[in-house]
C-alpha cells in the first residue's frame, strides 16, 4: 500500500495515519524512557562486577572502556529527555489557562518590557521547540546505541573469523590474519563514526569519497546499519539534528571526563590474574568452577585433605597440539574417525573404532597405551621443586563439559602441611623446530 492509498477500514492514507501516530508518540517515549532508566539504574554495579571477575584481562577491556561512557551517555540523554518532556507536559497544562504571555499586564518598566518582548518567544513556539528538542534527543540516543551495537558486531566478527582461521592454520598465520582483520574493521568503525559526527564529510568530498567507500561497504556489510540507516540520514537532513550533532562531540568528552569507567577493575596494587602464580583461578578447581571450561588442568579443590592429589590434564584437539604430538610420537598411527553414528541410547560412536575393537581388541589396547604415553609427554609436572616423572595415567572424560584428557593421582605423603604450588609445563605449539612451552601454576593447601 502506498503512502497516499486510503485504508478501506478508516479511509485514511498511510501518511495521515503516521501524522496521527506522531502526535501521540510522546506517550510511548515516556514509557520507554522510564523503563530503560529503571533497567539502567544499576548498570555501574553490573559493569564493576564483570570487570572484577576478570573481563578486562580476558580481552574485554576495550569493550568495557567503551561501554561505560556509552551507557552514561544513554542514561544522561534519557534523563534529559524525561525532564524536557515533563516541562513540555507542564506547558501544555498551563496553556489551558493562558495561551500567550501579556507583558503589559505584568506592569514591568519599559526597559524590561521591551527586552522581554524581544527575547521571549511566544508560548506556542516554546512548546513546539520543546517538542522538537525532546524528539531529537530520543531518536539520537537510539541512533548512537545502534552505532555502538554495530561496533560490537564488528568486534565479534573479528573474534569469530580469527577463531575460524586459528582452527585451520597454525598460531603464527592465524595471529597475522587476526591482526589484519582487526585493523581493517577498526579503521572501518572509526572512519564511519567520524563521518557520522562530521555530518557526512567523507561522502561530500569527491576524492575522499573513493577512499572512504570500501570501508563504508565493509561497515554496512557486517553491522545492523540496515535497521537504522533511514533514521541516520533523516536525522542528518534536519537542521536541528545537525546542530545537535555538533554539540555531541564536546558532550561525549565531558561525559568521559566525569566518568569513572577508566578506573574500573584497575586495582593498581594487585597483579594481573592471567596465569599468575599467586591468584586462585576458578577454572583450575572443580569446586570453584561454575560454567567455565577446563583450560589445561583441574584439581578437586584448593584445600587438599588427603595424601594424594587428583589431577586432570586436558587434551586440546586442535592443529597446534596435534603438531606437537606428531613431533613427540612421529611413528604413532593416528585414529581415523571418518563417520559417526548414534546407537540406540543416543550416544555417538565411531564406526571404524567399534569395528577395530571387535576385530583386534589386543592391538587396539596396545595402540591406546601408546596414545596415552604420547599425551603424557605433553606435560611436565612438579609440585614446588619436586618433579614427578613416573606417574600412572588413564584416559578420562571430565564430567564438567566432557573435556577429554588424562587423569592421574600425585602422592603427597612427603609434602609438609601448608601452601604448595602445582606447576605444569605444557607443550602448546611447535614453531621453528622448537616447542612453545606454556607454564601454569595452581596453588593449593595441604591440610
In total, the number of strands is 11
H/E series? HHHHHHHHHHHEEEHEEHHEEEEEE
Helix content: 40-55%
Going by helix content, strand content and strand pairing, the class is alpha+beta
Please outline what is shown here:
The chain has helices at 14-23, 25-39, 43-52, 56-95, 110-119, 123-168, 171-197, 201-204, 206-221, 225-236, 239-258, 319-328, 351-359, 361-376; strands spanning 297-298, 303-304, 308-314, 340-342, 348-350, 379-383, 386-388, 394-397, 404-411, 418-431, 434-446. It is an alpha+beta fold and 447 residues long.
Molecular structure report:
By secondary structure, the chain is of the alpha+beta class. The protein has two domains: 14-263, no CATH class; 282-335 and 363-446, Sandwich (Immunoglobulin-like), CATH 2.60.40. It contains 14 helices and eleven strands. The strands form three sheets. Strands 2-11-10-6-7 form a five-stranded mixed sheet. α4 (56-95) packs antiparallel against α6 (123-168), α6 (123-168) runs antiparallel to α10 (225-236) and α13 packs across α14 (361-376). Mean pLDDT is 76; it is low at 339-359.
Descriptors:
elongated; Immunoglobulin-like; five-stranded mixed sheet; 2 domains; 447 residues; 55% helix; 14 helices; alpha+beta
Amino acid at each position: 500500500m502506498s503512502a497516499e492509498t486510503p485504508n478501506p477500514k478508516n479511509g485514511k492514507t498511510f501518511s495521515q495515519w503516521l501524522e496521527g501516530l506522531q502526535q501521540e508518540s510522546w506517550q510511548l517515549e515516556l514509557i520507554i524512557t522510564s523503563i530503560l532508566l529503571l533497567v539502567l539504574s544499576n548498570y555501574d554495579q553490573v559493569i564493576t562486577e564483570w570487570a572484577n571477575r576478570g573481563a578486562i584481562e580476558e580481552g574485554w577491556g576495550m569493550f568495557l572502556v567503551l561501554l561505560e561512557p556509552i551507557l552514561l551517555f544513554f542514561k544522561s540523554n534519557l534523563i534529559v529527555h524525561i525532564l524536557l518532556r515533563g516541562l513540555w507536559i507542564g506547558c501544555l497544562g498551563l496553556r489551558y489557562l493562558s495561551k500567550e504571555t501579556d507583558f503589559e499586564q505584568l506592569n514591568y518598566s519599559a526597559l524590561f518590557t521591551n527586552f522581554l518582548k524581544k527575547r521571549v518567544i511566544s508560548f506556542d513556539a516554546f512548546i513546539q521547540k520543546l517538542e522538537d528538542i525532546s524528539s531529537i534527543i530520543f531518536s539520537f540516543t537510539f541512533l548512537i546505541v545502534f552505532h555502538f551495537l554495530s561496533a560490537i558486531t564488528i568486534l565479534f566478527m573479528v573474534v569469530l573469523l580469527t577463531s575460524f582461521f586459528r582452527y585451520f592454520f597454525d598460531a603464527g598465520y592465524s595471529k597475522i590474519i587476526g591482526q589484519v582483520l582487526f585493523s581493517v574493521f577498526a579503521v572501518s568503525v572509526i572512519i564511519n563514526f567520524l563521518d557520522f559526527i562530521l555530518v557526512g564529510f567523507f561522502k561530500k568530498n569527491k576524492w575522499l569519497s573513493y577512499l572512504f567507500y570500501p570501508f563504508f561497504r565493509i561497515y554496512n556489510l557486517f553491522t545492523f546499519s540496515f535497521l537504522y540507516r533511514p533514521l541516520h540520514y533523516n536525522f542528518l537532513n534536519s537542521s536541528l539534528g545537525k546542530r545537535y550533532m555538533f554539540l555531541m562531540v564536546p558532550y561525549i568528552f565531558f561525559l568521559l571526563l566525569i566518568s569513572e569507567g577508566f578506573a574500573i577493575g584497575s586495582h593498581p596494587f594487585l597483579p594481573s590474574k592471567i596465569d599468575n602464580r599467586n591468584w586462585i583461578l576458578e577454572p583450575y578447581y572443580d569446586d570453584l568452577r561454575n560454567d567455565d571450561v577446563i583450560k589445561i588442568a583441574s584439581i578437586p579443590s584448593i584445600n587438599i585433605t588427603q595424601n594424594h592429589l587428583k589431577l586432570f590434564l586436558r587434551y586440546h584437539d586442535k592443529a597446534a597440539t596435534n603438531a606437537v604430538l606428531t613431533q613427540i610420537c612421529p611413528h604413532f598411527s593416528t585414529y581415523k574417525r571418518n563417520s559417526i553414528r548414534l546407537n540406540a541410547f543416543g550416544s555417538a560412536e565411531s564406526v571404524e573404532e567399534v569395528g577395530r575393537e571387535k576385530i583386534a581388541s589386543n592391538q587396539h589396547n596396545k595402540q591406546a597405551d601408546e596414545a596415552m604415553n604420547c599425551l603424557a609427554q605433553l606435560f611436565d609436572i612438579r609440585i614446588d621443586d619436586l618433579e614427578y616423572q613416573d606417574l600412572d595415567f588413564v584416559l578420562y572424560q571430565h564430567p564438567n563439559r566432557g573435556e577429554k584428557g588424562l587423569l592421574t593421582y600425585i602422592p603427597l605423603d612427603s609434602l609438609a602441611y601448608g601452601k604448595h604450588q602445582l606447576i605444569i609445563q605444557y607443550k602448546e605449539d611447535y614453531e621453528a623446530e622448537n616447542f612453545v612451552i606454556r607454564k601454569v601454576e595452581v596453588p593449593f593447601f595441604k591440610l
